[in-house]
Write a structure and sequence with these properties.
globular, mainly alpha, 126 residues, single chain, 5 helices
């Protein structure tokens, strides 16, 4: 009986270590490998829908917020300027607060968050 208990204990230790290791490395990845879509030359003073926002929304959000996407349609991305302006503030907020794109996808880089913030602040230029 005692032996069985010891073996069980061993298994639990191994499982716990694996879970802990996985949790730690995941956290590390999120910081190191945050996707960075910021384009050279696009800054917080010249960011527009055309030179930056359009591609990011299309490539990172449309799989769920597109025509056949799984997200409940608060925001249905039509890939148009008007659509991005209409939902812009909430889109920016979800990105800045790391709630979109949802886990396990990695939150955007600080450079990307700054570009989204700047785009809204500048009045969402086309
Ligand atoms: C893997 C699928 C998926 C991807 C990719 C995704 N979303 Fe979502 N999104 C969801 C789901 C599911 C909901 C509804 C559940 C919720 O509100 O948390 C949602 C809700 C939202 C909402 C409305 C809810 C709120 O908090 O206001 C906004 C705005 C949003 N997403 C923006 C985005 C943006 C911007 C991107 C791209 C950077 C994105 N999402 C990428 C699945 C996704």
């Amino acid at each position: 009986m005692k032996r069985i208990l010891n073996i069980r204990c061993g298994y639990y230790c191994i499982i716990c270590s694996i879970v802990l290791l996985a949790a730690c490395s995941k956290k590390g990845d999120a910081v190191v490998n945050a996707p960075n879509f910021a384009i050279e030359g696009v800054t917080d003073t010249n960011v527009t829908y055309t030179n930056y926002i359009h591609n990011v929304l299309k490539n990172s959000c449309s799989s769920c917020h597109g025509k056949t996407g799984s997200a409940p349609q608060y925001w249905y991305n039509t890939n148009t300027y008007e659509n991005a302006v209409q939902y812009g503030t909430r889109i920016m907020e979800t990105i800045v607060e790391n709630s979109m794109p949802p886990a396990p996808r990695k939150p955007f880089s600080d450079a990307d968050k700054n570009l989204f913030r700047a785009w809204i602040k500048r009045g969402s230029p086309e």
